[in-house]
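Example 3.2
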Amino acid sequence: MNGLTEFKRMNFFTGFFTTAEDWNAGQDYHLAKRKLHNRGLHTPGVIRNIPPDSGEMSVRAMTTPSLDILVMPGAAIDGQGNEIYLGASRTLSIDPADYTLPQIVYVSLAYREAETDYAENSEAAEYSGYTRISEIPYLAITTSQPNNRTELELARIQLTEGVDAIREPSDPNDPGSNEINRRHVVWAGAVAVANPLLPPAALDRIINLMGDKRRDFAALAMAFATPSAVDVRQAALTVEILARNRSLRPEQLDEIMTVLAAVELDVGHELGVLYPVLINFPEYIQYQDTVAALEAAIRAGQPLDDILNRQTEVSEAARLLAGVIVQMPESNAGPDVTVDATGDETTVTLDARNSTSPSGRPIVRYHWDRRG
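Structure, written as tokens:
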């Protein structure tokens, strides 16, 4: 479609003498229309259920008992609207000697074309030529991360020294070294609105950041029982799920980060109320400052990278705050009192109004323990 200003299709009539140029123009018309449809109404990626009985095995990278990668048959669509069809499985070999280890390598799929099936006219050489243009599924092992537009990622492997085989991951959600990682495969789909997609690098960063945030705020919630810390962890889990599912759009991130920052602000407020002894700790002050800086960056409309940097600082501050050890006061409510009940039920009045903490401050709340 290079240089195309309008679509023209063939119009046959009696006496129309066609040439090779006419037939090629007819082919180009249908190709251009199909690619336009694919680009406008489908997202690039691997097509599910091709072949029909494959489940989700379409163009799937598999391990072997060696350093080879077996790519199963299937189909995909790239970002230019090209339809890629792999009709039979292919094997790719990885040679660790080709890399400086440790090294991440990627299994990629791309669309290529080549003239094939040459027909030679020995009587008139000018009538010789290639009779077909083959649409070739190009598979490669590369150290460059595929952009999931012109090249599609089928898998990635973190190679380390001494690797002798590529294995299936013991935990598919967290593949280790020398294990095949298919978490970044993008599936083709239909689109209702042609919104831009977040680049793979941004999605990976959000996934890693939300994983750290879940860990750090879980530690904070365990150290200091704070409902909002649990809310942050749950919100981070939701964002991570959306990112892993490739469902996050650039236009959604402002609202998501605004809500997440608001809940992180709630954490600081609740800690100050529930644990007032914390407010003088430098870790608490640092947490409050990092959240304030995050909110200021969001209000100023700073770029996504800056917002994610601020979110990273908030998570690190939460982790440091979770490590603070606070000695909770112990109070003395006076000597134990034993009440003898003459029946199954009795009424007891407990008065702790005169109780004080070791610092002399009055006790305003008690948890009574009923024994026996």
